[in-house]
Protein TIC 20 (Acorus gramineus), 194 residues
Amino acid sequence: MVPALPRNHACRPGPGSIMVPKASKDIPFSYRYPPMTKKPRWWWRTLACIPYLMPLHETWMYAETAYHLHPFLEYFEHLTYPFLGFIGTLPSWFLMAYFFTAYLGVVRKKEWPHFFRFHVVMGMLLEIALQVIGQISRWMPLAVYWGKIGMHFWTAVAFAYLFTVLECIRCSLTGMYADVPFLCDAAYIQIPYD
């Protein structure tokens, strides 16, 4: 049964008439991307891939927890270990400085192209979401975290995140906005457009 609201007395045509709520086409259901009139230049597309290296690094670290992924990860060790080693040598305050600099210096500045700012925010949101999942899972009992359930959980999370990050990198290289549910709307909210 559809709920009915009583009409205003001034516009009531007759006794007992009711007004049924209707959806409006003028109210957007999500945030819309600005119209893309032309493809971003190649250097903006390449530069937009850099923020995704941090979530890719974090995904790789959590993927090593899943024993099922070790044969898969061994194929790419020669590509990832130099970057992982470099990240490991950075001071502990670097991630905080990275987030503040990227957010205040890139995302909130209108001088940077909207496409680039969007991908910087998406990379930051993917990193934050994975860190939240990691922190919550550490509160679980060790039998769950290191047990069979944890192994399957981290296998699923690693595959989902790996393919999500690779899809975001693909979208940035092709000059598109990455359409990740929930995160793309959250990223668009952070960027001042006017």
User: Anything to note?
Assistant: The first strand starts at residue 5 and ends at 6. The chain has nine helices and two strands.
